[in-house]
């Protein structure tokens, strides 16, 4: 029986190893290319490290104003994430606990917007920002997503519904209002889903490319992803510097996921998602 299962197990492991190599190789390529010197990029195979390692690509990158892109991205990501978290918590709690006419219908209509590709609403959003005079402004960059996203509200609503209503009833008997109950009872019990929503918001806004590319044109409002895509050397695309920028952009997200992955898995399991 064991011998008959061995070929199947071996095949499964080979497929898993192959998938792992395909998934990890782009990150390895980014790391190796970022530390190659100008003459080492085409003189070595992609999977060969440059010897000795060189930081010239990082020096050229920051000399071109990359530090400003990084700072702008941090500030915009922090601002949008904070706004999404606040408004998504309020909306998720309202949909989970408050009773008002058309609550469920409104929730499912709002949730159905997840089926609409973002590129479909890009032009209408741009025209709205243009009419409001918000093109190439920080407000125009942040406004479309700062008020929350359907997915974040859905996750929070599902999690809040798992918290026993008796706890909130007991708080109201003691004289606590809705806001006090939310901040003193519900949110302390919702740390896993709050971490998950925060993590997803940071990743989405940190990697945002198309909307910042369309709505902004000034150098001082250029974000990380746009700056990397538009980075050029003296005679064309500087691949070493592009990979160095990609490595810097990638590192915080990997650290974020490593530290908070257990909260993400736990919250998704509790909300019933697969």
Features:
Carbohydrate ABC transporter membrane protein 2 (CUT1 family); cell membrane; 72% helix; transmembrane; mainly alpha; MetI-like fold; single chain; 274 residues
List the helices and strands and how they pair.
Layout: H1 2-34, H2 56-63, H3 66-97, H4 103-111, H5 118-131, H6 138-146, H7 150-162, H8 165-173, H9 178-186, H10 191-206, H11 210-215, H12 224-229, H13 239-271
Helix pairs in contact: 1-13, 2-13, 3-6, 3-7, 3-10, 7-10, 7-13, 8-9, 10-13
Protein name: Carbohydrate ABC transporter membrane protein 2 (CUT1 family)
InterPro entries: MetI-like, MetI-like_sf
Main location: membrane
What does this structure look like?
With 274 residues, this protein is mostly helical. The chain has a domain of 176 residues: MetI-like (MetI-like fold), CATH 1.10.3720. 72% of the residues lie in helices and 0% in strands. It is built from 13 helices and no strands. The longest helix is centred in the first third of the chain and has 33 residues. The radius of gyration is 24 Å and the shape is globular. The two termini are 33 Å apart. The model has no long low-confidence stretch (mean pLDDT 83). Keywords: Cell membrane, Membrane, Transmembrane, Transmembrane helix, Transport. Pfam families: BPD_transp_1. It is a multi-pass membrane protein. It is found in: Cell membrane.
């Amino acid at each position: 029986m064991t011998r008959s299962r061995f070929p199947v197990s071996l095949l499964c492991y080979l497929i898993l190893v192959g998938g792992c190599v395909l998934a990890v190789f782009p990150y390895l390529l980014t790391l190796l290319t970022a530390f190659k010197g100008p003459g080492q990029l085409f003189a070595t195979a992609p999977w060969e490290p440059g010897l000795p390692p060189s930081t010239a690509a990082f020096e050229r990158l920051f000399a071109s104003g990359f530090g400003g892109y990084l700072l702008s991205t941090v500030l915009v990501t922090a601002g949008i994430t904070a706004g999404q978290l606040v408004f998504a918590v309020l909306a998720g709690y309202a949909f989970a606990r408050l009773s008002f006419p058309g609550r469920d219908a409104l929730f499912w209509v709002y949730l159905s917007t997840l089926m609409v590709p973002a590129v479909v609403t890009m032009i209408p959003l741009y025209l709205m920002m243009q009419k409001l005079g918000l093109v190439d402004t920080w407000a125009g960059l942040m406004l479309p997503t700062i008020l929350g996203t359907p997915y974040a509200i859905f996750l929070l609503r599902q999690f809040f519904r798992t918290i026993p209503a008796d706890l909130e009833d007991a708080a109201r008997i003691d004289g606590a209002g809705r806001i006090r109950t939310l901040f003193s009872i519900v949110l302390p019990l919702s740390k896993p889903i709050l971490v998950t929503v925060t993590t997803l918001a940071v990743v989405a806004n940190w990697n945002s490319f198309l909307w910042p590319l369309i709505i902004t044109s000034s150098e001082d409002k250029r974000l990380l992803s746009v700056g990397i895509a538009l980075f050029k050397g003296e005679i064309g695309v500087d691949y070493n510097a592009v990979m160095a920028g990609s490595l810097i952009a990638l590192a915080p997200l990997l650290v974020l996921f490593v530290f908070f992955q257990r909260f993400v898995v736990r919250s998704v399991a509790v909300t019933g998602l697969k």
